[in-house]
């Protein structure tokens, strides 16, 4: 009984202090209720003469259409591709370093 009271008091203190953030509501339009799927992206930098190469990433299940891709220059001579799925708003960044290493964010 004492443990229950301490837990209730601690929870009330957190609620009053504003430290607890409400979780976003799940919605079918955001695809958050669907299981994640593996997708292979074809990374083809328009500023690089090298051929495109595949990169496999895990995305939410609602990302079933082709993503939009935009390229930009990053720090230290890196190239950054941002893949965006419009139906869910999910984004994946693929970073290509000067040495040709691939970093997925």
Automatic annotation (TrEMBL):
Residues 1-22 form the signal peptide. It comes from the Bacteria. Keywords: Signal. This is Uncharacterized protein.
């Amino acid at each position: 009984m004492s443990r229950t009271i301490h837990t209730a008091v601690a929870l009330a203190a957190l609620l009053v202090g504003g430290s607890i953030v409400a979780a976003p509501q799940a919605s079918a339009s955001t695809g958050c209720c669907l299981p994640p799927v593996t997708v292979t992206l074809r990374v083809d930098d328009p500023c690089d003469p090298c051929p495109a190469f595949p990169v496999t990433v895990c995305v939410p299940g609602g990302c079933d259409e082709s993503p939009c891709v935009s390229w930009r220059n990053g720090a230290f001579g890196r190239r950054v591709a941002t893949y965006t799925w419009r139906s869910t708003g999910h984004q994946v960044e693929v970073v290509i370093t000067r040495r040709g290493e691939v970093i997925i964010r």
